[in-house]
Structure formats: C-alpha cells, structure tokens
Amino acid sequence: MKKEQENTLFRAFNLIAILFVVDGHIPIEGELFNFGGLFRYYSFHLMMFAFSSGYFFKEERKFKEAVVHDFKRSVIPLYIWNCIYGIICLVLSKLLGTTFGEPLSVYSLLIAPFTDGQHFVLNLGAWFIGALFLAKFLYRILYFLCSRWKRTDIISFIISVIVGCGAVTLCRRGTNFPIFLLRPMILLPGYAGGVLYHKRLESLDHLPVVPYLSIILGLRFILCAMNENLAYLLSNCSYFPCNAFSVYAGAALAIAFYLRIARLLNNTIQNSRILLFASRHTFDIMMHHGLGIFLANGFFLILNILHLGAKNFSVSSWRTQGGYAYAPDGRPEYAVLYLAAGLLFSLMIACLTEKLKKQIQKMN
After folding, report:
1. 240 phi and psi, to 5 degrees?
2. pTM to 2 decimals?
3. How do residues 23-76 score in pLDDT, each as one tens digit?
4. d(CA 86, CA 122)
5. How many angstroms separate the Cα of 178 from the Cα of each of 174, 184, 187, 193, 327?
6. In the chain, is it the N or the C terminus that has fewer CB atoms within a 10 Å radius of its CB?
7. Where are the alpha helices (DSSP H) in 176-243?
8. Residue 174 within a domain
9. Domain, as residue range, for 135
10. pLDDT in tens, 81-134
11. How far is the CA of 274 from the CAs of 4, 8, 21, 88, 277, in angstroms?
12. Is residue 2 in a domain?
C-alpha cells in the first residue's frame, strides 16, 4: 500500500498552535506572539487543534473503527501518562514537600482525566486531549445522523455551530452543566469547520498574501474593538466575557490568518528535521510542557540554595504552585527560557517514548 504523503502545511499549523499553548501556560505577564493583544492565544489556539483534527476527518472510516482508532491514539496514552504524573506528584510531595496535585485515588486516576484533566497540575494541558476525543466522537455521531441528506458536511457544520453557541451561552450564564460535555461541545464547530474547509473551502483559498492578511487583520481589529476581551477559559468554562458570535468569529479569523502563515512557513518545516519532529509530536508537547516548565525552576532553585543568584526565587511558591515561574522584577524576557524548557523537555520525552515503542515492536 502506498504511504500517504505527509501534510506539512498542517504540520506547520499545529506547530504554531502548540507554541501558543506552551507560551500561554508560562505565568509571566504578557504573551510573546499575540500581536499586541490582537491575537490573544486564549481566543483561538485550542480551536486551531480542533480545526486541524477535523481537516483529517475520514468519511469512509466506519464509526466503530474510527472511535477505536482515536481511543488507541489518544485516550490510552492519556491514561498511561495520567498515572505516571500522579506518581510524580506523590514522589515530589514526599521528597520535596510540594503540595500541588490531587492525591492518588480512583477519581484522579480514572475519572478526572475527562472531568478535570488539570488535577495533577504538571500535565495541565492533558485535559484537552480528552475533550478533543469527545468532540471527534460527537461529530462522528452527528455526521452519521446527517448522512441521509446531501451536503452532509454543511448540515453537520451548521448543527455544530448551534451546539457550540448553546454551550458558550451556558458557560456565560454560569450553569452547572457538566464540564466534560461543555468542552467538546464548544470545540465541535472548530472540528466541523476543519471538515468543511477540507471538502469545500480549501480549493477557493487563493487570494494573494498581502490583501488576504490585511483583510483578516482589519476584521480582527474590529472584532477586538467591539469586545472588551476575546479570550476565554475553555479549560474550566468559567470565563467567557464575549458572546458566542465573537468566540467563533474570532477563532475563524485567527485560523484563517495562521493557515496562511503556515503556508508561508511550509518550506521551512519541510527542510528542518527538528521542526518536523516537533510538529509530529504535539501530543507529547501538550502533555509534558508543564513538567518542563517546573523543572526549569530547578535551575533557579539551585542558584538560590547555593547563593549564586536568583535571590528572589520563591521556594514556597515553587512548592505550592506547579505553575510558578521565576521572573525578577517581572521581566518578561524570562518567559523565553521557560518556553524553551517546556518545548525541549517535551521533545526529549517524545524521543525516548519513540525509541521505547520501537524496542517493544522488535520484541514482539
């Protein structure tokens, strides 16, 4: 069977998205690449992943086959790493006196990956993996139900937008609707948009770069001016300052913008082994960057203990806050160090797990 050609355009697109995720989790004021607030990460970066995943939706794959495939690729690794991070938190608490992270229990090991996902703190991006799996599952059901009609992708997209808008409205009203359902419902229009783009819109995307980006920047500016803040918290569905229209219009504009940026970066990704490796392991970066940021603090902790520098490093904050970051006088350039640490550590884990998989395959 002929091997399917790798889509490096979406490799570049996903690499941009994961860069925003890691930078957004660094607790130092400001975001490195948000265009002065015009593209605040939390208004679109996770929707980028939903869109990208939807782009690769395989209509011909049977329902059971698709669900089993997604379960093996995302849910099983999610649970494995969830157990590992639970053990890491336990060991850290015993050896170093850290107090963050839930204790090991049936809930934290089996249920929390979907109902919380940030319970062990150091793998704070893991909640999204379960949410995206459920969004795929919901769309697969929706697509099956709509398959009796022509233009199934368009009908599914419209229904997805209605579902997403309803979920955003529930969040804004502060209802007690289960968070494990709200998250995938909000992601659903992004996933459906990826399907629609692949089937109908991609062939129309030929506008020259300068007018294309200028139009998007102008529309994004207008949308930002109309809203106090386009950013929202999907992780706990507790903060939605803008309405559903602004949530999805803002995401659509940002996705369109970074799709074109990804196209411009496509050749660079193709010719860089490191960038290509990183773009193939966004799961690993999503899962492990929090621990990389935490370990970067170890360097400053050692300097502090040995009285060689970092005198303002807060040992108590490091022990109690898994997301603590050292930035003397609030200097934002320290975020670059934590960004590098989160990315490099994640890629190191990805490299090790890849080698482990190969060894297991050889044994079998």
Report:
1. -135, 85
2. 0.94
3. 999 988 778 899 989 999 999 999 999 999 999 999 888 899 999 999 999 999
4. 9
5. 11, 11, 15, 24, 37
6. N
7. 179-196, 209-226
8. yes
9. 8-363
10. 999 999 999 999 999 999 999 999 999 999 999 999 899 999 999 999 999 999
11. 21, 13, 19, 28, 5
12. no
